[in-house]
Specification:
Rossmann fold, Dna Ligase, domain 1, 3 domains, four-stranded antiparallel sheet, globular
């Protein structure tokens, strides 16, 4: 059963944090606080998460989690909130931990209908060139547990691989290497109403960069948002939404997620699940929700009132 969080409740907007996505999270948190105040939640406050977070959270009744990356999206803050018995938005401990790791997400989804990109998982002590022999170039090299495209590189030959892996290992010791899908990026929000997940409209993203990198994600003018997506047939669009909801459910997600795909030849290929989607002025989820008739403030309210779903 969904909560209806009282207007006089003391709500902590958790943002900032200690990950590489700190600045993005602060931007999300500022926007969310503004929405909560417009909605009448006068006791909502920003909590910039630090090692003293347990002390900082004393007295709060609810937590709106808009942290991104390590400690905020990987089950850590969720576990602390469980111990402190503070209801919180978004996914729970298990699903947050699974979805933060791109390889383990794939392992959960491997025996489902979700179409996965061919990839290899390279441990910190393994030779990446030997591991990619079964893959075809070009390849995308990614830290296995990082967001916002930090540490990612596109490579076209073995000679570029070591430098790309070294770059990725600055963020995580283990690395995921996938075949590059030469298509366009698309993403689907998954929200929940009365405990039932539903897909938003699909957001198609056409970038001025070679791929949807950090600059393209957070620099105005470098990406064109097309929502509803125009690059898919009706059948492919319906299938992509169906797969997004299926992935959300199979990974144990709750409240909100955003499922990313590459689209090639009218076919979706799963990339990852984001359990705490960005909520900045240029983020995907607010644009997707708007296309469904859900404005920013009501999107925030819908997520806030999902605090009971991650149990």
């Amino acid at each position: 059963m969904q909560y209806i969080v009282p207007k006089d409740a003391k709500v902590a907007v958790l943002c900032g944090g200690m990950s590489s996505e700190r600045e993005v999270s602060l931007r999300s948190g500022k926007n969310i606080l503004g929405a909560l105040q417009r909605l009448g939640y006068k006791n909502a406050e920003i909590v910039d998460v630090s090692p003293t977070v347990a002390e900082d959270l004393k007295g709060f009744e609810y937590a709106y989690n808009t942290l991104h990356g390590k400690y905020g999206e990987d089950g850590c803050i969720q576990g602390l909130l469980e111990i402190m018995k503070i209801p919180y938005t978004g996914c729970g401990v298990m699903s947050s931990a699974i979805c933060m790791n791109k390889e383990y997400t794939k392992r959960v989804l491997r025996n489902s209908n979700v179409p996965l990109i061919k990839s290899v998982y390279v441990h910190f002590n393994e030779d990446p060139v030997k591991k990619v022999m079964e893959l075809e170039y070009p390849l995308m090299v990614k830290p296995v547990s990082e967001g916002s495209s930090y540490g990612m590189t596109k490579v076209i030959c073995d000679g570029e691989l070591y430098d790309a892996v070294t770059k990725a290992r600055k963020y995580n010791k283990d690395v995921l290497i996938e075949e590059f899908i030469d298509g366009f990026f698309a993403t689907v929000g998954v929200l929940e109403k009365d405990g039932k997940p539903f897909a938003t409209e699909i957001l198609e993203i056409r970038t001025k960069t070679e791929w949807y990198d950090l600059d393209a994600k957070y620099t105005k003018g470098l990406s064109e948002f097309i929502v509803p997506a125009k690059g898919l047939s009706k059948e492919a669009s319906d299938l992509t939404k169906q797969i997004a909801v299926e992935a959300h459910v199979l990974a144990g997600c709750s409240g909100v997620s955003r499922v990313d795909f590459m689209i090639k030849d009218d076919k979706p290929y799963f990339l990852e699940i984001n359990t705490n989607p960005g909520m900045t002025d240029v983020s995907d989820l607010p644009a997707q929700a708007k296309a469904c008739g859900i404005d920013y403030d009501n999107l925030v309210l819908m997520i806030l009132n999902s605090v009971g779903l991650n149990k």
